[in-house]
Protein: Group 2 truncated hemoglobin GlbO-like protein
Organism: Actinomadura macrotermitis
Amino acid sequence: TQQVTFYEAVGGEETFRRLVHRFYQGVADDPLLRPLYPEEDLGPAEERLRLFLIQYWGGPNTYNQLRGHPRLRMRHVPFVIGEAERDAWLRHMREAVDELALPEQLDKMLWDYFTMAAHSMVNAPS
Ligand code: HEM
């Protein structure tokens, strides 16, 4: 029997490309979040998040090949992330998820993961 991954169920690479692209359009205009990103070009950051999410949800493991083990909390230590940054991140991600118009159950799985992950990335609680 063949297991359909979440990655496949939501439409594969194209869906993650749209999601993360829309998310970074929000970040690009955000006065709180934009200064956190070290590079002037958000393209490379967009690619890293896209590849990470594709891998996390059962798609190709290109992220690990390029970047090694995710260790996301550790990789975020250089950036001051408080509740305000977390909420801004989640707001842009919510808009990006909305645009995918996924079936309710898939939307909920994705959103539950993002809220959990974003809460775990806070390293400067107020
Ligand atoms: C990288 C901010 C939450 C996944 C980054 C970077 C910043 C950042 C500034 C560096 C950009 C770059 O790659 O050059 C934040 C803030 C968050 C947050 C403010 C608010 C809570 C998350 C969450 C996830 C995530 C929830 C996963 C679901 C990633 C990944 C990278 C990254 C995969 C690239 C890691 C690497 O390979 O170097 N983030 N992030 N972030 N973030 Fe976040």
Q: What stands out?
A: Helices lie at 6-9, 13-28, 43-56, 62-67, 72-76, 83-100, 104-120. Residues 83-100 form the longest helix (18 residues). The chain is about 65% helix and 0% strand. The chain has a mean pLDDT of 97.
